[in-house]
Amino acid sequence: MLLWSLVSTHVWGPGSVLLILVFLLRLSVRLWYKCHLWDLQHCCTDLTGKTAVVTGATSGIGKAVSQELARRGARVILACRNRERGQWALAEIQAASKDACLLLGEVDLSSMASIRSFAQWLLQECPEIHLLVNNAAVCGLPKKLTPEGLDLTFATNYVGPFLLTNLLQGALQRAGSARVVNVSSFMHTSGYIDEEHLTGAGRPLTFNQNYYCSKLLLTSFTGELARRLQGTGVTVNSVHPGVVYTKIMNQFPWSYRFLFWLSSFFIKDPQQGANPILYVSLAKELDGISGKYFSSSCVITLPHKAAQDPHVAQSLWNASVKLTHLNKAD
Ligand SMILES: NC(=O)c1ccc[n+]([C@@H]2O[C@H](COP(=O)([O-])OP(=O)(O)OC[C@H]3O[C@@H](n4cnc5c(N)ncnc54)[C@H](OP(=O)(O)O)[C@@H]3O)[C@@H](O)[C@H]2O)c1
Questions:
Q1: pLDDT digits (tens, 9 = 90+) for 233-292
Q2: Active site residue: 212, 245, 279, 293, which one?
Q3: Which residues cross the membrane (predicted)?
């Protein structure tokens, strides 16, 4: 009895207070997001007859985005690097909405050869593409070169989306009205632009700066592509989803992952993280809006200064064309 009263006062007492506090905090975070997220339920955009391509649809934000697009009637191409994980995601989305029209496509965005063969297949399957969400990315990887001589992080997060979008440009334009959504990160503001990074050279990078810099390149590319596609009916924007509990930090040391797990009670879940991306993909009021960077609150925000500079963007574009051997025949 004495032991029980000791435990209940000294352990269960403070323990339950802590649990209640965590619960209340979690509840207020949920309520806050409910009030501050874009009102998806009131968006009446119907995607019946439209084709959407989502890269990195096996998990996290990409899967949540694909699910909502499919629910709205789009034919969704789940562009995944791993067939098995892709099939799992497809089955899960199909189970959630029985009428979903889904197609699995295999692409490793760190490989230019894989992107070219995926694009070739995709253009045969879908001559018109109404929405391309460049969502796939890696984070926390050390410097490593791909067999094609690119830095793995820059290849996946920037060169891949650059090449894929360019290869699909014809199909996007044929759709009459189409959107490209590049999933960036607010951490791009901690990056800087050095084209040499693409091939693993350039100024040294501190821990995870390769991720920040690659997202800055993606944001700069957004502006340049928007300028080039003016008047074609294709708009291009980038967006920060917010801090979202996904497997994005799986490559980090365990201490970081543990802190991320602890924070998972207070940050967005993948559905909430998908919200700003769905806003940029679906909202009618964004018709014709192009070359912008959206914050996680769905507000047009100025990106890093380097991403606003058209000269920097043009130079990056030229370097990327050279690197990917993109030519007029593509
Ligand atoms: N989570 C956040 O807090 C946060 C914050 C800011 C921005 N973002 C951005 O949000 C996007 C989605 O991330 P997430 O949080 O949902 O992370 P995630 O759960 O790790 O999803 C990343 C997706 O990218 C795919 N992927 C990685 N490398 C690939 C490659 N070489 N080829 C094809 N697919 C590849 C992964 O496929 P596998 O299943 O095969 O690994 C996975 O489907 C990313 O662009 C990320 O930078 C996330």
A1: 999 999 999 999 999 999 999 999 999 999 998 899 999 999 999 999 999 999 999 999
A2: 212
A3: 12-33
Q: What distances in angstroms separate CA 5 from CA 17, 19, 20, one per listed residue?
A: 16, 19, 20
Any atom of ligand 1 within 6 Å of the Cβ of 150: no
Domain boundaries, the chain: 45-243+273-324
- Which letter does DSSP use for residue 189 in this model? G
Mean pLDDT of 124-148: 97
Ligand 1 within 6 A of CB of 105:
no
Secondary structure class of 276 (helix, strand, coil): helix
- What is the C-alpha to C-alpha distance for residues 301 and 299, in angstroms, rounded to an integer? 6
Q: Is the CB of 246 under 6 A from ligand 1?
A: yes
Distance CA 231, CA 18 (A): 57
What's the gap between Cα 306 and its chain centre?
Answer: 21
**Annotated catalytic, 245?**
no
